[in-house]
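Final report, Chapter 2: Outcomes

The project's central promise was a pipeline that accepts a single protein chain and returns its three-dimensional structure in a standardized token representation, suitable for archiving and comparison. That pipeline is now operational. To close this chapter, we reproduce one record exactly as it appears in the project archive, with the input sequence first and the structure output second.
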Amino acid sequence: MTDRPVNLNEIIQLSSELNTVQDLDLLLDKILTEARRILNADAASIQIKEGDELIFSHVQTESIQRLLPPGQKLIYTTFRTRISHGSISGHVALTGEILNIPDAYRIPADMPYQFDRTSDIKSNYHTKSMLTIPLINNRREVLGVMQILNSKNPGPGGGSCDGDGAFTGSFDASDEMFALHFANIASMILQRAKMTRALILRMISMAELRDPKETGPHVNRVAAYSVEIYEKWARARGLRKEEIDQKKDILRMAAMLHDVGKVAVSDLILKKPARFTPEEFEIMKTHTFQGARLFKFRESEFDEMSAEVALTHHENWDGTGYPGRVDVDTGEPLEKDSKGQAVPLKGEEIPIFGRIVALTDVFDALSSKRVYKEAWAPDDVLSEMRTMSGKKFDPELVEIFFESLDVIRSIAARYREEA
């Protein structure tokens, strides 16, 4: 049992907190954090069901995280496993029943499932107690599996770890009750978040039908890179955690829609395999304010940020970008230069979220293969990002980008292009 009282009022409060999160990835991280806190556990993972596979999409391990420098995130490899009764997670996904295993290394041989020690060996970790809970929606469909690992509560001999640092506690019937109640809440919120993500991806699919560059993996990578960079930028400025979490959630979705305005640009231009003429490039530039125009009737901070990102993600730090100071409704310049063109924004005149997406969008475009080009070599991409610091990109954000390369590479692996 947990080492402090946990009651239903706390669970209800948790449900309210989770309902403030909209984005799927951020929601899953929040669920894991709260599940570990309530059940006093060292590690947890969420595995999302897709077809006949489980995708290990989110993992947290407190004891390993503590070994990292402050602010550095635990890097893990996203992988898939086929659902079968032979694995613990697969058995729970197939039966829809909770499994409470006191010692993963001592599962009786006559059980249909056994613990795979491969991950423990690779990470120098020792899994002992395991609480595996199905995530089931109101249609009785299994959405995935949540695993809570290594209770930090005292073991039979007292203390939560033995002399070798292994966890000795286990989960009891009270933990199961709270875990099941929590999983029910998480499943409902997860279903809602998946619907929100699906609606956004449908909007992106419209752009993808017009422009083959706007793929689902591309926008997911750009959005995830953007959240990572924003979080470090915001922490360096001492922003409150509550504000950072709120902005991250909205940015994750707004960044996915950065190029949605391309639905208003002609196929003759979007799908042209050659370089644009000056006239065609001027038309292409309109996708910025066309995208912002989609969020004209703003009823939320999401609408405001989406419009801001769509409008400003092609502005350059040195003031050579576009569309500049324009009327979103008409596309006409609000302030003209000597050539009668809209005066571009520069430096910190460009909103921070536009500056971030400008960087992440270019990085992903250079790194990705497209029908009209091969992906650049990784070293060439990084060299170009350095070269563009202070020109196209905010120099501070470029430094944060390089500090975050390990996480960015793990994000790229998570959202690979389909073959």
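Archive annotation: The chain has two domains: 8-192, 211-414.
This record, like all others produced under the grant, will remain available to the consortium after the project formally closes.
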